[in-house]
Write a structure and sequence with these properties.
The structure holds two protein chains of two kinds. By secondary structure, chain A is of the alpha/beta class. Chain A folds into two domains: 168 residues, Rossmann fold, CATH 3.40.50; 80 residues, no CATH class. Chain A is built from ten helices and ten strands. Chain A is globular. The C terminus of chain A is likely disordered. By secondary structure, chain B is mainly alpha-helical. Chain B has a single domain, classed as ABC transporter involved in vitamin B12 uptake, BtuC (Orthogonal Bundle). Chain B contains 15 helices and six strands. Chain B has a two-stranded antiparallel sheet with strand order 1-2. Chain B has a two-stranded antiparallel sheet with strand order 3-4. Chain B has a two-stranded antiparallel ribbon with strand order 5-6. In chain B, β3 and β4 form a beta hairpin. The longest helix of chain B has 30 residues. Chain B starts with a helix and ends in a 5-residue tail after the last helix. The model of chain B has no long low-confidence stretch (mean pLDDT 89). The chains are: A alpha/beta, B mainly alpha. Chains A and B meet through α2, α3, α4 and α5 of A and α8, α9, α10, α11 and α15 of B.
């Protein structure tokens, strides 16, 4: 297994709350890696630290050999890490196509001067961006809504659009934060196919998910977080039988809100 | 041009090509129609073009990038005073126009970045308050920098700015064609300003459908998501502030040389609000909206001045409401009605006008 992403002792504290404590994990190239845990376990915090939205108190992420900059999301994206959000965050007033085109921003470099004069480079780049965005909409299966405003898309299509937008950044690692949340069984099944397709196309997937069935059926390996600590990491079948995991989910030893 | 053409009522959607020619014809013929009512009206049109440029620039900041700026007139002031410093008897400098105007734009852009840096983390109301303060600071500086060293000549302002002289051709002099026929200088200024406005429209339209325009729109809709797809929001904000300010600076430079006189009182908070009102009234985030808003709201006080007094005198035998009061009254009424009836402005931002055209040109739309 070639390591793509390595988390080394990530810690993050919010006031009196230790959201993440010394979390280390290794994600191999081409894996679908699941991150599960009860609500408030620190999964999304780990995403936010990874993608540069938060600065960690300790530790670092090493991504294909280089340390990821902390607190600078655009540099992390440039390195090849893209994410989606738990609560969908699209550019609501833009069309579906424009959302995806915006996602390609980091891979383009037309200057103000180029835009003013519409020189060859700018026009070519714009044409490629449009074409690529349309291909990505096709890829996630919503190309018929290319010119529809993002806020008018159905919930499931918005989720797909967010994935397409993340793919437009040309990532090596795609981090999905609860992509199946709020989806019905059919939509979830389609999503599963899409994620498998993404992996087949050479993109490593890091997945936060509550749908245990989806995680167990999809992921190569799973890590379990509880109270900011990693309590297990293994193939799904083994994790499912892990004592600590069962007690974390069923509330043995700890008290949970749900 | 596409967006403008499509915004023409009725004709725009049926025959954009015809609408486009109609706009061009109207823009070219406007001063000739105006002169029939008197020279003042050509002057009103000249000022309207300056306001259009201001509204376009502010629309870029507020409408495209979503950064509420209440001190925009400060950039207009920077442009005008740069012109005054470099091309007037005040310092006895008379640099040529084609050097002074770019410098006006450049200094305004630098002022834009100066304002941009401290407000990077602010948004909404907080941003509005700081930019408002910035606008006032600039005005107060201009008002008071006449002591101990006289830089701005204080409240008296600076007189006798050089007119626009392009390659030895002085726009402030009428052209005597024959003995009876002369082309008034107001016409020359009109066409010079029109060229600037046309250039601005072209540039802004290209910006809107570029990677930069999309990044601004993304930032406006959801800053966190914009960061998460790799947009450097700091740079994009600074770019919006500086480009927006550039248009203010150019407009200010033109204003100074057109009027031949600058003083701090032209750059009060009310002016900032007036320009913002034009943008909101016309339709935020929309080039056509900014233009229509600026045109209507800059002409309104002049129309009132010429109509309200005589009308009141014939109706009541005396002037009950001062035109200035009436203007504010009507403006407030218009804004209230707008908020109730057309909250997105006269011409709501339908960014997809241009984008659909754009997509068609890329052969994407089904």
């Amino acid at each position: 297994m070639i390591t793509l992403l390595e988390a080394r002792g990530i810690g993050k504290r919010f006031g009196g709350l230790q959201a993440l404590a010394d979390v280390s994990l290794t994600i191999g190239k081409g894996e679908i890696y699941g991150l599960i845990g009860p609500n408030g376990a620190g999964k999304t915090t780990l995403f936010n630290v990874l993608t540069g939205a938060y600065t960690p108190d300790g530790g670092e992420f090493v991504f294909s050999g280089t340390v990821l900059p902390s607190g600078k999301p655009h540099l992390v994206v440039a390195q090849g890490v893209a994410r989606t959000f738990q609560n969908i965050r699209l550019f609501r007033e833009l069309t579906a196509l424009e959302n995806v085109m915006a996602g390609h921003h980091i891979r383009t470099n037309a200057t103000i001067w180029g835009i003013l004069t519409q020189n060859k480079h700018t026009r070519e780049e714009e044409r490629l961006t449009t074409e690529r965005a349309y291909q990505l909409l096709k890829y996630v299966g919503i190309e018929r809504f290319a010119t529809a405003t993002a806020k008018n898309l159905s919930y499931g299509d918005q989720r797909r659009l967010e994935i397409a937008r993340a793919l437009a950044t040309e990532p090596q690692l795609l981090a999905l934060d609860e992509p199946a949340a709020g989806m019905n069984a059919t939509e979830t099944a389609q999503l599963k196919l899409l994620i498998e397709q993404i992996r087949r196309d050479g993109i490593t997937v890091l997945l936060i998910e509550h749908d245990v069935k989806l995680v167990m059926g999809l992921c190569d390996r799973v890590a379990v977080l509880d109270f900011g600590r990693k309590i297990a990491e293994d193939i799904p079948a083994v994790v499912q039988k892990n004592e600590a995991v069962i007690s974390a989910y069923l509330g043995g030893g700890h008290k949970h809100a749900h | 041009m596409n967006e403008l053409a499509l915004a023409v009522p009725w004709l725009g959607k049926r025959n954009p090509q015809a609408a486009r020619w109609l706009i061009i014809a109207l823009a070219l013929a406007a001063p000739m129609i105006a002169i029939l009512f008197g020279r003042t009206w050509v002057r009103v049109l000249d000022f309207a073009l300056l306001y259009i440029m201001l509204a376009l620039g502010l629309n870029l900041v507020v409408g495209f990038a979503g950064l509420l700026d209440l001190g925009y007139i400060a950039f207009y002031a920077v442009g005008a005073y740069t012109f005054a410093f470099l091309a007037s008897p005040h310092f006895d400098l008379h640099l040529p126009f084609y050097i002074v105007l770019p410098l006006s734009a450049g200094f305004a852009a630098m002022a834009g970045i100066t304002l941009g840096f401290p407000v990077l983390r602010l948004r909404g109301d907080y941003l509005a308050i700081v930019t408002l303060g910035f606008g006032e600071i600039v005005r107060i500086f201009l008002n008071n920098l006449n002591y101990p060293v006289n830089i701005t000549n204080g409240p008296q302002g600076i007189n006798s700015l050089d007119p626009i002289i392009l390659f030895g051709w002085d726009l402030s002099r009428n052209i005597q064609v024959t003995e009876e026929l002369s082309i008034n200088s107001l016409f020359l200024y009109y066409y010079a300003f029109l060229a600037c406005v046309a250039g601005s429209i072209l540039f802004i339209q290209r910006l809107q459908i570029s990677r930069v325009g999309r990044a601004w729109a993304a930032m406006r809709d959801d800053e966190l998501a914009a960061k998460a797809i790799g947009i450097n929001t700091r740079n994009m904000k600074l770019l919006a502030f500086s480009l927006g300010a550039t248009f203010g600076g150019v407009s200010g430079g033109l204003f100074g040389s057109f009027q031949g006189f600058v003083s701090p009182e032209s750059f009060s908070l009310m002016e900032s609000i007036a320009v913002l009102t034009m943008v909101v009234f016309g339709g935020m985030g929309n080039i056509a909206g900014a233009i229509v808003g600026a045109l209507i709201l800059s002409a309104l006080p002049e129309i009132l001045r010429h109509l309200a007094v005589p009308m009141q005198q014939t109706l009541f035998g005396k002037v009950l409401l001062d035109p200035e009061v009436l203007r504010m009254l009507l403006l407030s009424l218009a804004m209230i009605l707008m908020m109730l009836l057309r909250p997105a402005g006269l011409i709501p931002a339908n960014a997809r006008y241009s984008h659909i055209e754009h997509l068609k040109s890329q052969g994407v739309t089904r």
